[in-house]
């Protein structure tokens, strides 16, 4: 390969020992998903941070646009009744 | 817990540990009896630990020399991690050597203040670095061999050696995987990468036979406790006490199997090249090295020798 193309970007998600879900920790470049997984292990878990890794191609993520911030999120701002806080919980219902 | 905060969710406890350092670290020698086991020759055990320690130390140094030269940032970190794993093994082994021979030497003495002929590493690890294919090939050969060795050493009669081996097996399993992945990518990649892998195999292969040649110290420690069974070196299967060391000759079939599997997947062939003989039959384990070794030591030892009382 005399003219090197750049490897695609992958986003990395790591689950810590205590954590319940995978958390986005950063990104890296790799030739394919298998390589990305190993790179993620080397780059993002070398200080004992994780027990599980997900990688996903950045180009496969569909993200909301900052331009659509208002139509997407602003309407929820004044709908406080959507929170389930208007109910009285009976005393014999545990774990609430 | 705030799972919306990456850093917070990554920390293990609720103490002041910062996310970047993780928590729950283990001491590989925790709870291990460090006294010399009965009937084990301290000088032989020390010499054996120096052999395995020097293999790791010199290989680590060659990998460290790759820093800033690797083709991608991610590979920089991967190779540096591997080098650090090996350095960690070297430190434990050289420390054990100092304790076993009663000479009171610390790990720094072994690494920085010995002359070339006292280094007992196999010659494979000291060779000048080549291209990335050479790094991958040498690492594949080294880690396949060392994994087979440490895997069997986990039942060594010396509990410290057994604990170091148990730690090392997990590390080297990954090193071998890393090298095998790249062997397949490059061997089965472009014409140019395939050509470079073939050249690398031809450069490295002459040093393979030496890996399976037992030094008298290895032979003595491998049969020490076998008591007429002859199979004790493989450990665990028989009533005899496990041996301290492994006769490297017993590792050859596993090595050949693994290499055959990886090379096949990589569309590569085992090269037909003659082994490079030692000097009058003396090999790296006897303290006889290639020309590259003197330059390597000059660089590796220069700072420690310039500041012999220095601490860092």
From TrEMBL, chain A:
Pfam family, one: PaaB
NCBIfam families: PA_CoA_Oxy2 (TIGR02157)
Protein name, entry field: 1,2-phenylacetyl-CoA epoxidase subunit B
UniProt source species: Phytoactinopolyspora halophila
From TrEMBL, chain B:
Gene3D superfamilies (UniProt xref): 1.20.1260.10
Protein name (record): Phenylacetate-CoA oxygenase subunit PaaI
Single GO biological process annotation from the record: phenylacetate catabolic process
PANTHER family: 1,2-PHENYLACETYL-COA EPOXIDASE, SUBUNIT C (PTHR30458:SF0), PHENYLACETIC ACID DEGRADATION PROTEIN PAA (PTHR30458)
Cross-referenced SUPFAM superfamilies: Ferritin-like (SSF47240)
Pfam family name, one: PaaA_PaaC
The species this protein was found in: Phytoactinopolyspora halophila
Gene Ontology cellular component annotations, sorted alphabetically: cytosol
């Amino acid at each position: 390969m005399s003219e090197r193309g750049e490897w695609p970007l992958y986003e990395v998600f790591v689950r810590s020992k205590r954590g319940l879900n995978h958390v986005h920790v950063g990104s890296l470049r790799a030739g394919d998903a298998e390589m990305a997984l190993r790179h993620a292990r080397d780059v993002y878990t070398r200080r004992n941070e994780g027990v599980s890794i997900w990688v996903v191609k950045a180009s496969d993520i569909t993200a909301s646009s900052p331009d659509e911030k208002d139509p997407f999120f602003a309407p929820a701002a004044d709908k406080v009744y959507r929170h389930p806080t208007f109910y009285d919980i009976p005393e014999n219902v545990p774990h609430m | 817990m705030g799972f919306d905060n990456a850093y917070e969710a990554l920390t293990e406890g609720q103490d002041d540990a910062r996310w970047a350092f993780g928590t729950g670290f283990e001491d590989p020698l925790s709870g291990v009896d460090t006294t010399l086991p009965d009937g084990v020759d301290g000088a032989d055990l020390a010499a054996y630990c120096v052999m395995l320690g020097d293999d790791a130390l010199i290989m680590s140094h060659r990998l460290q020399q790759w820093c800033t030269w690797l083709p991608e940032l991610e590979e920089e970190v991967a190779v540096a991690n591997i080098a650090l794993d090996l350095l960690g093994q070297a430190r434990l082994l050289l420390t054990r050597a100092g304790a076993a021979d009663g000479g009171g030497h610390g790990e720094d003495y072994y690494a920085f203040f010995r002359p070339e002929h006292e280094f007992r590493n196999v010659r494979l690890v000291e060779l000048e670095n080549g291209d990335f294919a050479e790094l991958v090939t040498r690492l594949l050969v080294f880690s396949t061999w060392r994994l087979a060795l440490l895997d069997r050493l986990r039942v060594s009669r010396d509990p410290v050696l057994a604990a170091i081996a148990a730690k090392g097996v997990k590390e080297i399993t990954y090193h071998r995987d890393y090298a095998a992945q790249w062997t397949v990518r490059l061997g089965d990649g472009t014409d140019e990468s395939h050509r470079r892998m073939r050249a690398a195999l031809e450069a490295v292969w002459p040093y393979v036979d030496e890996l399976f040649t037992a030094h008298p110290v290895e032979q003595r420690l491998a049969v020490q406790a076998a008591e007429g069974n002859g199979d004790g070196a493989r450990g665990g299967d028989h009533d005899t006490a496990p041996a301290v060391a492994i006769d490297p000759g017993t590792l050859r079939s596993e090595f050949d199997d693994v290499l055959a599997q990886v090379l096949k997947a990589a569309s590569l062939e085992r090269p037909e090249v003659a082994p490079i003989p030692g000097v009058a039959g003396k090999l790296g384990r006897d303290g006889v090295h290639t020309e590259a070794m003197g330059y390597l030591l000059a660089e590796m030892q220069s700072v420690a020798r310039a500041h012999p009382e220095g601490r860092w």
